Amino acid sequence: MSSEKRSLGGYIQRLVALVDEHDPVAGARLRQVAGDRTALVGLDEEWVLVRFTAGRLVAEPAGPGTAATGSGRTDRATVRAILLGRAEVSGAVLDGGIHLAGRPDDVAAMSLVVEILLDVSARTPPMRVPAEDFFVGPTPEAVALATAWYPAEIPPEEKALLGQLGLLP
Amino acid sequence: MLDHLRPPTPYDPTAPAYKEWLHLNVFDHASGTIGIVNATLQGTPDSPSACAVGTALVDSPGIGWRGGLAVQEATQAGVGLCSIAMDVLAIAADTRTGAVSSSVDLPEAGLRCVVEADPLGKGLVAMAPSDFGSGWISWQALPRLRARGQLGACVLTDATAYLDHNWGRWHWGEAWTAWQWGVFHGVTSTVVLSRLSDRTHRRSGATMLEVRTGDRQRRFVGKMVDINWQLPMAAPLFRVPGALAALHPDRARPRLPRSMVVTAGDGHDRIELEFTSRSAAQLVLADPAVRGYSFLYEFTGTFACTGRLSGVPYNDSGLAVTERVE
Q1: In this predicted model, what pLDDT tens digit does every residue of A15-54 receive, in sequence order?
Q2: Which residues are paired to A53 by β-bridges?
Q3: How far B145 CA lies from chain A's nearest CA (Å)?
Q4: Does the model's pTM come out above 0.80?
Q5: pLDDT tens digits along B49-81
Q6: Across the interface, do B243 and A121 touch by the CB < 8 Å criterion?
Q7: Which of A118, A126, A146 sits opposite B243 (nearest CB)?
Q8: CA-to-CA distance for B281 and B296, rounded, in angstroms?
Q9: Residue in chain A nearest B232 by alpha carbon
Q10: Interface pTM (ipTM) of the complex?
Q11: Per-residue pLDDT tens digits for B276-303
Q12: With helix as H, strand as E and coil as C, how does A87-154 read?
């Protein structure tokens, strides 16, 4: 893989290009959601500033303090663990493996952009190749429980109420 | 003996909904290790969105799950008379003898498997095409084979296997694209269970439970079969593929069943079977043609059953895999 494709900016550009090629409607939706926002994306020690300008994706090298509408930071180990089913996104956010910053609407927009990319990838096998090449690394350890917001067990009273209402499967 | 793969013809208007797979379960009765290997083709064969999906999961007592799921373009997979070969996973069956071979190489997931198996006994378990979603599904199975080889670090010493072949036309995520299924390998018998349903599992479709022990074989259908799942199960859930699991955080902590009780009878023959879950995995199934997702839960565990077949008392126990699709 060339150094261009190995860069975070190159990887993001490659993903969006595949979306535009295989699902133009989703590509238009990406641009609609992003609007005129800018996103500072950090992976390990690399930072890029991402935005759409006149419909074209611009991803240029940046620093951790570069001003942007919203920012997101993670590391390859966290991403690999998620891709291999060894960690959950919610647990990664709670444990600090994924850090998002910005106003609520801007953080929601960044999350929606990621969701659109994941959804399109389900119907676009070529989108998996860049991810497999970009996130190489050691195999994560065995399944790690996601950090829980709520206890896994429910009280007997709740279970009884659900049963009375016919809501238990 | 076995049917061949049935890809769509070039002008089949239902081709976008095409799905077909070979599915292999391996039970190592000495160690309790259970392997699940699946090779699936879906979508119009020559379309850019058509894909081959390979899934390999091995659950070992005290260790848990190893494995994962790989996807590649369907045009890059090798498809034979009754074989699907991807870069990292392959399953092949001899349609004449029923011999099966499978290989898995998922270094990212830390799993390598090589399995060969030969059928025990005669005859297939088969179900006629049934309505399923906006289309239909059909399947047949070799219920019991003698297996040898290796599942990850487990060298098979006393192992049996099960192979089935499913094909049809539907889109994942449609209302009536769910099932409950199980294969149970005891010391002397094999039980295969199948029930199609809606995704809430409140309305049932075609249902079948078949028991084979020695020279006795008995099938129960429809309302002869009663299935009850009992909650809850407290065990971590292994979700693959990770990218699609991240898209569905609402499915990260479902209420999983700790056991399933199946009873079947016709007034003369009967069987009561209880399956106890050990581990659970969730496969997020994405449709390649339309935006739709289903969630397939694989449960490994043990079972015990009693009953009477052809007037003769029957009981057995062993390893099993069950599935529940939502």
Answers
A1: 999 999 999 999 999 999 999 999 999 999 999 999 999 9
A2: A56
A3: 30
A4: yes
A5: 899 999 999 999 999 999 999 999 999 999 999
A6: yes
A7: A118
A8: 8
A9: A153
A10: 0.82
A11: 999 999 999 999 999 999 999 999 999 9
A12: CCHHHHHHHCCCEEEECHHHHHHHHHHHHHHHHHHCCCHHHHHHHHHHCCCCCCCCCCCCCCCCCCCC
Nearest to A83 among B65, B242, B286 (CB): B242
Task: Say yes or no for a CB contact (<8 Å) between A126 and B48.
Answer: yes
Contacts of A86 in chain B (CB under 8 A): 242
Of A123, A143, A152, the CB nearest to B64: A143
Token pair 């565990």 is at which residue? B301
What SS3 string covers chain B? CCCCCCCCCCCCCCHHHEEEEEEEEEEECCCCEEEEEEEEEECCCCCCCCEEEEEEEEEECCCEEEEEEEEEEHHHCEECCCEEECCCEEEEECCCCCCEEEEEEEHHHCEEEEEEEEECCCCCEEEEEEEECCEEEEEEEEEEEEEEEEECCEECCCEEEEEEEEEEECCCCCCCCEEEEEEEEECCEEEEEEEEECCCCCCEEEEEEEEEECCEEEEEEHHHEEEEEECCCCCCEEEECHHHHHHCHHHCCCCCCCEEEEEEECCCCEEEEEEEEEEEEEEEEECCCCCCEEEEEEEEEEEEEEEEECCEEEEEEEEEEEEEEC
